[in-house]
Specification:
mainly alpha; 0% strand; elongated
Length: 87
Protein backbone atom coordinates (compact mmCIF):
# COMPACT_ATOMS: atom_id res chain seq x y z
CA UNK A 1 0.00 0.00 0.00
CA UNK A 2 1.15 3.48 -0.69
CA UNK A 3 1.85 5.63 2.31
CA UNK A 4 0.19 9.00 2.61
CA UNK A 5 2.43 12.04 2.66
CA UNK A 6 1.58 15.06 4.74
CA UNK A 7 1.07 18.18 2.69
CA UNK A 8 3.02 21.27 3.60
CA UNK A 9 2.18 24.88 3.01
CA UNK A 10 4.51 27.26 1.21
CA UNK A 11 6.09 28.27 4.53
CA UNK A 12 7.00 24.66 5.37
CA UNK A 13 4.43 24.18 8.13
CA UNK A 14 2.05 21.24 8.12
CA UNK A 15 -1.48 22.09 7.05
CA UNK A 16 -4.03 21.64 9.81
CA UNK A 17 -7.46 20.13 9.37
CA UNK A 18 -10.55 22.27 9.83
CA UNK A 19 -11.04 21.06 13.42
CA UNK A 20 -8.56 22.57 15.79
CA UNK A 21 -7.45 20.39 18.72
CA UNK A 22 -8.53 22.87 21.42
CA UNK A 23 -11.95 23.68 19.94
CA UNK A 24 -14.91 21.54 20.93
CA UNK A 25 -17.09 20.28 18.05
CA UNK A 26 -20.12 20.98 20.27
CA UNK A 27 -19.43 24.66 20.78
CA UNK A 28 -22.09 27.05 19.44
CA UNK A 29 -19.74 28.42 16.78
CA UNK A 30 -18.87 24.92 15.52
CA UNK A 31 -22.55 23.94 15.42
CA UNK A 32 -23.41 27.14 13.54
CA UNK A 33 -20.61 26.49 11.04
CA UNK A 34 -21.86 22.94 10.53
CA UNK A 35 -25.43 24.11 9.91
CA UNK A 36 -24.23 26.71 7.40
CA UNK A 37 -22.19 24.07 5.56
CA UNK A 38 -25.21 21.74 5.44
CA UNK A 39 -27.38 24.53 4.03
CA UNK A 40 -24.75 25.27 1.38
CA UNK A 41 -24.63 21.60 0.36
CA UNK A 42 -28.43 21.40 0.16
CA UNK A 43 -28.43 24.32 -2.27
CA UNK A 44 -26.18 22.28 -4.59
CA UNK A 45 -28.67 19.39 -4.88
CA UNK A 46 -30.54 19.09 -8.17
CA UNK A 47 -33.93 17.60 -7.38
CA UNK A 48 -35.90 15.75 -10.09
CA UNK A 49 -39.12 17.33 -11.28
CA UNK A 50 -42.58 15.96 -10.47
CA UNK A 51 -42.96 14.04 -13.76
CA UNK A 52 -39.69 12.13 -13.34
CA UNK A 53 -40.46 11.35 -9.70
CA UNK A 54 -43.95 10.05 -10.55
CA UNK A 55 -42.61 7.93 -13.41
CA UNK A 56 -39.89 6.33 -11.31
CA UNK A 57 -42.31 5.74 -8.43
CA UNK A 58 -44.75 4.00 -10.79
CA UNK A 59 -41.90 1.88 -12.18
CA UNK A 60 -40.88 0.79 -8.69
CA UNK A 61 -44.46 -0.08 -7.72
CA UNK A 62 -44.98 -2.13 -10.91
CA UNK A 63 -41.66 -3.91 -10.37
CA UNK A 64 -42.55 -4.74 -6.76
CA UNK A 65 -45.92 -6.17 -7.86
CA UNK A 66 -44.32 -8.30 -10.58
CA UNK A 67 -41.62 -9.63 -8.28
CA UNK A 68 -44.09 -10.36 -5.48
CA UNK A 69 -46.33 -12.30 -7.88
CA UNK A 70 -43.33 -14.26 -9.17
CA UNK A 71 -41.96 -15.06 -5.72
CA UNK A 72 -45.44 -15.90 -4.42
CA UNK A 73 -46.07 -18.33 -7.27
CA UNK A 74 -42.65 -19.97 -6.83
CA UNK A 75 -43.31 -20.32 -3.09
CA UNK A 76 -46.74 -21.82 -3.75
CA UNK A 77 -45.34 -24.25 -6.34
CA UNK A 78 -42.47 -25.36 -4.12
CA UNK A 79 -44.84 -25.71 -1.16
CA UNK A 80 -47.12 -27.99 -3.20
CA UNK A 81 -44.15 -30.07 -4.37
CA UNK A 82 -42.76 -30.47 -0.86
CA UNK A 83 -46.16 -31.34 0.61
CA UNK A 84 -46.78 -33.93 -2.12
CA UNK A 85 -43.35 -35.50 -1.46
CA UNK A 86 -43.96 -35.66 2.30
CA UNK A 87 -47.36 -37.40 1.91
Amino acid sequence: MASKKKTRSSKGRQMESTATPGKSPYSPSAIREFVLEVQAEFKKIVWPNRKVTAGLTAFVIVLVIILSLYLGSVDLLLGKIVSSILK
